[in-house]
Structure formats: structure tokens, C-alpha cells
Amino acid sequence: MLYISYRQSYSHRPAKRPRFASSAFHADEERRGLISSGSSLGGDVDDNLSGNGDAVIEMDLLPPRWADVSDEVNELLADISRKSSKLDKLHSKHVLPGFDDNRSAEEGEIERLTGEITNGFHECQKKIRRIEGMIGGEGGSKGEETMGRNIQISLATKVQEASTSFRKKQSAYLKKLRGLSGMTTPLDRTGSPNPFYQDSDPTADISFSQSALQQSATLTSNDASIMQREREITEIAKGIIELADIFKELQTMVIDQGTMLDRIDYNVEQMSVHVKAADKEMTVASTYQRRTTKRKIIILLIILIIGFIIILAVKPKRNSIPKPPPDPNAPRPPRIPI
Q1: Distance of CA 141 to CAs 56, 100, 127, 137, 144, Å?
Q2: Three-class secondary structure of residue 128 per DSSP
Q3: pLDDT tens per residue, range 196-254
Q4: Which residues have C-beta within 8 Å of that of residue 149, sequence separation ≥ 6?
Q5: Does 317 fall in a domain?
Q6: 273 falls within a domain
Q7: Is residue 44 domain-shared with residue 82, that is, in the same domain?
Q8: Residues 158 and 115 in one domain
Q9: Which segments of the chain are extended strands (E)?
Q10: How many structural domains comprise the chain?
């Protein structure tokens, strides 16, 4: 019951009344008993109770607004991953020979999943854009702003990787369909020997998809199956081009935010250098101060020693007893004649 009251107070919604008054009475009594058991911790329970007996709990610190957007993007990516795995199985099954009825159903399912996955990437892109407007709002600290930009870059990178993987799968499936249709595959004109560059650069996929669209537009055939396959090729090629556009926009976002974070990191590094230099100066100053204190103590001891020597030299003269005058009646020693 305490959890229910906590949830209701957090959402700032009035608690729903039970249907029966007796149940409400017993629930309120039970809730008051649970809360009163914790009153020994020093809190005033009566002040924290609302009119219906619910505990009002203050929520001072709330997570940033972009935290919900981050969770939504991660959920979309997880859903895209599940649908992509299902689509891979359909692709592997669809390129095999089969009956026309089954192939039509498979093509419809493939088209539906492809559209949902592409729309999912568009939703991720929109949500990542929303984070930009949430960063640096009123009441936000510099730390939250930096954290928000890091989250934005991280999400954009995840969406980039997922869209690149899906785009390469679609491109490979498109090549298989073109091979089944008897079309020629255009040569790779990128000229890049780096496989990482070929996987991340969407230029080759865009060129291949545009070539497929051009060949599909010029193809004329009376065979319904061939025309259906060409329509499928056209939809896949358009989807690949859309994914490439999403990749480019996210890449621009990552580069821009990365440049800003590089400047922030540079300032942090410079501040660290200045702090270390100041620490060295403080260490040197502290050493000089300790040496000055020692010198003062030594000079004071020397002055005290000189003072004690002067006191010891002067003190016997003041305390010496004067000699008594000679007695005139005392016999004088005889003088020896020379």
C-alpha cells in the first residue's frame, strides 16, 4: 500500500476511490498504520498525510527530459533488431524456389517488415533531434548539458550502426533478386580497398540502388511474376536510399557534436594543465614558507643565546661583594731594608 501511495503522489494524480466505503476505510487504516510505524525516524506523519490518508512524498530531483527519449530510442532499436532477424529468415526463404501463392504471401510480409523497420529508423532520427532542443534548457547545469550531448552522440552512433547493418543486408538481398531476374550487377566504382570504408560509406549502396531503379523503370515484360519482383526491387532500392540519407544525417550530427565535445575536452585538458601548474606553484610556495619559518626559529634561538650570554656576563659584576677596608690597628708586616 505504501508503494501505491508513493506512485500516486509521484504522478500528481488523485487516488482512485474504492467502490465500497468499508474497503476504503480499512485501506486508509492500514496505510496509516504502515506509515505510523516509521514515525520513529523523526518525521511528522500527520503533516505528510493528505486528506484521504495518502502519503505525500516530495520528489525534488527528477531525471532530465532526454532520459525518456533515450529509453524510447533503445526500445525502438530492440524492436528493429527483432524484426530484422525475422526479415533475414524471410529473405533466405524467399530466394529459394517455391509456389507462387507462398511467394506472394512472403513478399507481402517482407514488404511490411521492411516498411516498419524503415519507419522505426525514421522515428529514432526524430527522437534524437528532439534531444537537441532539450539540451541547455532553463535550470540545466553544464554537466547535464554535456551528458545530454554525449547521450545524443551515443544514440546517433547506435542508430548509424543498426541502419548500416540493415542497409547492407538489404543491398545483398537486392543483388540476389537482380541475379534471379537476370539483370547485370553494376561494378563497384568506389575504388576503396578499405573494407571498413566500404561498409560505412553509403555511396556504393546509393549508386547500386539508383542503377536498380533505372533498370526497373526501363524494363517491360508481360510476366506478372517478373513485374512483381521488379516492384519489390524498386521498393527495396528506395528503402536503401532512405537508409543512406538517415546515415548521412546522423553522421553529420555526430561530427558536429563531436567537434563541440572536442572543444570541451580541450578546455578540460587545459584546465587540468593549469591546475597541475598551480599545484606545483603551491608546493614551491609551501616549501619556501616552511623554510622561512625554520629561519625565523633559528634567528630567534640565536638571539636568545646571545641574550643569555650577555646576562651571564653582566650578572656576576652586580652580585660581587666589595672587599672590607684595611684595619689601622692591625700589625703591618716588617719592611726589609734593601
Answers
A1: 28, 61, 22, 9, 5
A2: helix
A3: 334 445 565 555 555 655 555 554 444 555 666 667 767 777 777 777 777 777 777 66
A4: 135, 257, 260, 261
A5: no
A6: yes
A7: no
A8: yes
A9: none
A10: 2
